[in-house]
Design a protein that fits this description.
49% of the residues lie in helices and 17% in strands. It is of the alpha/beta class. The protein has 3 domains: 85 residues, no CATH class; 149 residues, Nucleotidyltransferase, domain 5 (2-Layer Sandwich), CATH 3.30.420; 80 residues. The termini are far apart. Strands 5-4-3-6-7 form a 5-stranded mixed β-sheet, sandwiched between helices. The chain has a two-stranded antiparallel sheet with strand order 1-2.
């Protein structure tokens, strides 16, 4: 028998167009089915052999949907009904692997347009954003399980903040608050504790969020770091009354701009910023008095506001000095929010709340795993030594 040789150019020409590729794929899959039956029976069609384990009994029709169209296949049967093909299971596993890879691309920040271009280049078919989203729905159970996991460790430090994302609801685009909690455990490792959606940053929303953490086992919180959001402050004071409260000094300095005229010399704010680099609270308060005396006449409104509120930003001075730069602001959580923004900026508007929560939680889990694998963020021994001393019970936030 003469074997026909197909050149590379002829093969490429054959594969041009979905119809030609579909026909080639259908022939190949059909041959695989026949080969599987031959192997199961121990003999080919019409072959006489002593190793035969059964006999064929016709075919039944089966459709297989692929990226190049639907294949119309004839699946062989045997008289005993023992033959089971693995073609469909293997194909589904490969399809699932591809789709999960696409979902990973989507989560990692690759735009929908680029995802479609990659899939079209690889397999002649582009997956839309809705298709990728439908595949990633299977991640929901895993992500929900992570965000509901029992908190079996103690978390000495808790950092809370929120950001807003746009979500389409009943045809109307609305802003939804994404509430995030980061904890630092007694071993000094950072962990993402929770990510939830809320209509807004109300006292009740934050209260429910914190109660959920306590129900999962949150305990041992020594310090909570937040901005000055009124609802958040009230919720912390109610749910975690024994914890110290640190007002983020970065947010504090931003708020100070509201008490300065636009044309004001910003040197006073720079000097105010330097107070947070002092070795202890006594030194910071001494320099604060000098700062107030220097700027009182020029910016009385600012000085009055600072004098009334700045003590809330000095709580971190009650911690070990090595922890000061890490716990005087919410910057640790702000960096996580920036990663959220990098990805959600591409999406712009989420089709629904589950889609929004799915993407942000996936990014949060990825960051959490990186933190767990990294070296310790803080050496907690100085805090343990500090707490061994008979310090007075921390005041409510």
């Amino acid at each position: 028998m003469t074997q026909t040789t197909i050149t590379r150019e002829q093969l490429l020409a054959l594969l041009q167009g979905d119809e030609a590729l579909r026909a080639l794929l259908q022939t190949t899959v059909q041959e695989v089915l026949e080969a599987e039956m031959d192997e199961a029976l121990g003999a080919g069609k019409g072959e006489r052999t002593g190793e035969r384990r059964g006999y064929r009994s016709g075919y039944y029709g089966r459709k297989l949907t692929t990226r190049v169209g639907t294949l119309e296949l004839r699946v062989p049967q045997d008289r005993g009904g023992l033959f089971r093909t693995e073609v469909f299971a293997r194909y589904q596993r490969s399809e699932k692997a591809l789709l999960l890879a696409l979902a990973e691309m989507y989560v990692q920040g690759v735009s929908t347009r680029k995802v479609r271009a990659v899939t079209e280049e690889l397999c002649g078919h582009g997956f839309s954003a809705s298709a990728v989203s439908s595949v990633t729905v299977q991640l929901d159970a895993e992500l929900e399980g992570f965000m509901r996991r029992p908190l079996t460790e103690e978390y000495a430090y808790l950092i809370l903040d929120a950001r807003y994302e746009r979500v389409r609801e009943a045809g109307v685009i609305r802003s939804r608050a994404v509430l995030v909690a980061i904890g630092i455990d007694r071993e000094g490792r950072r962990q993402v504790l929770a990510v939830e959606l809320a209509n807004r940053e109300s006292t009740s929303a934050w209260r429910d969020f914190l109660i959920g953490l306590k129900q999962r086992g949150l305990a041992g919180v020594h310090l909570v770091v937040t901005d000055d959001h009124e609802g958040l402050r009230k919720a912390v004071a109610e749910v975690l009354p024994a914890a110290l409260w640190q007002r983020c000094y970065v947010h504090f300095l931003r708020n100070a701009l509201d008490h300065l005229p636009r044309s004001a010399d910003r040197a006073c704010l720079q000097e105010l910023r330097w107070l947070y680099d002092r070795r202890d609270a006594t030194e910071a308060r001494t320099d604060l008095c000098a700062w107030l005396a220097r700027w009182q006449d020029k910016h009385p409104k600012l000085c009055l506001w600072v004098e009334a509120n700045i003590e809330e930003t000095f709580t971190y001075y009650r911690l070990p000095p090595a922890h000061h730069k890490h716990l005087k602001s919410t910057n640790l959580l702000e960096r996580l929010n920036q990663e959220f923004k990098r990805r959600t900026h591409i999406v712009r508007i989420f089709t629904d709340e589950p889609c929004c929560l799915r993407l942000i939680r996936a990014l949060a889990v990825e960051t959490h795993e990186e933190w767990i694998d990294a070296s310790r963020y803080l050496n907690m021994e100085p805090l343990r030594e500090l707490l061994k001393k008979n310090l007075p019970e921390p005041k409510a936030a």
